[in-house]
Amino acid sequence: MLELADVSVDLEGERIVSDATLAVPDGSVTAVLGPSGCGKSTLLRAVAGIEPLAAGALRWDGADLAGVPTHKRGFALVFQDGQLFDHLTVGRNVGYALRLRRAPGTDRRVAELLDLVGLPDHADRMPATLSGGERQRVALARSLAVEPRLLLLDEPLSALDAGLRERLAGDLQRILREAGTTALLVTHDHEEAFAVADRIAVMRRGRIVQDGDLGEVWRAPADAQTALFLGYATVLDGARAVRLLAEAGLPAADVVALRRSALTLDPDGPLRARVREARATPDQVRLRVHVDGVGDLDAVASLDAHAGAGDEVGLHVDHTRLAVVGRP
């Protein structure tokens, strides 16, 4: 298991990571999620041993990694662009480290890994002939070849287009599970984090503000800013939160976050509202509604709904699409 204890990292005299504490359990995939510039890639480089610590400690299975150089940590790092050797075939890229070590059964291991990442017939291809997604698969196979104790992934899908990124995220989850590899992933994309990881750490301005199982973080964001970053559309606090929950017949809370689809049009719904605007999309009608004592909120309706601006409507509140913020 990897443990970070109050880790701080400075670059050019500026504190980039502050007092980061995190545990990455054996066999888990943990995502550090945060906006660009929050320090997550710097944190990953510190774990790899590329950046020195200004304070705190890194431990692997209880052993302090201070003074252990990068090449002796037993970790592998996958960058955004894969960084393949363009003059070597795919097979020789994957088996590069194994051949340096004169490991027996290298060809068999390469074939196994290419099959694992879904490229069984690509051993003789050159990197220049591959798509972006294929290059990342090869980079992943090369990193797994040496059976690292920990795999570090630095925004591995960010250079891909949205559709390919979504498909490869699912494949990445499968590959890591099948390989049984402990992994630490950093990303700015919460959908990617939720698709790949089973644990998540939210990072903001150099600090880890929350970490835990995906469900725990999703159901109870640490604060309003975290909730909005995770994709909740609206955060209500104080009397507005109390009023909404009371009208919907749900337990009281001081701060609540709502997904865009938490409120749905329902003539018999307990929450009454007036439609301010309605906009049709290919999948649904998106509404902006006003609830007395609460304010303007997002809501959705089916495409056959006939709600327009000025209409009085009933709303159903889906409790699975809202979260109590800051709940222990």
From TrEMBL:
- ABC transporter domain location: 2-230
Superkingdom of the organism of origin: Bacteria
Q: Which UniProt keywords apply?
A: ATP-binding, Cell membrane, Ion transport, Iron, Iron transport, Membrane, Nucleotide-binding, Transport
Q: Which PROSITE patterns match?
A: ABC_TRANSPORTER_1, ABC_TRANSPORTER_2
SUPFAM superfamilies on file: P-loop containing nucleoside triphosphate hydrolases
> Is Aminoacyl-tRNA synthetase set as a keyword in this record?
no
- Xref: CDD domains: ABC_Carb_Solutes_like
One of the record's GO molecular function terms:
ATP binding
SMART domains the UniProt entry points to: AAA
Which PANTHER family would you find in this protein's record?
SPERMIDINE/PUTRESCINE IMPORT ATP-BINDING PROTEIN POTA, SPERMIDINE_PUTRESCINE IMPORT ATP-BINDING PROTEIN POTA
Name this protein carries in UniProt: ABC transporter ATP-binding protein
Species annotation = Nocardioides aestuarii
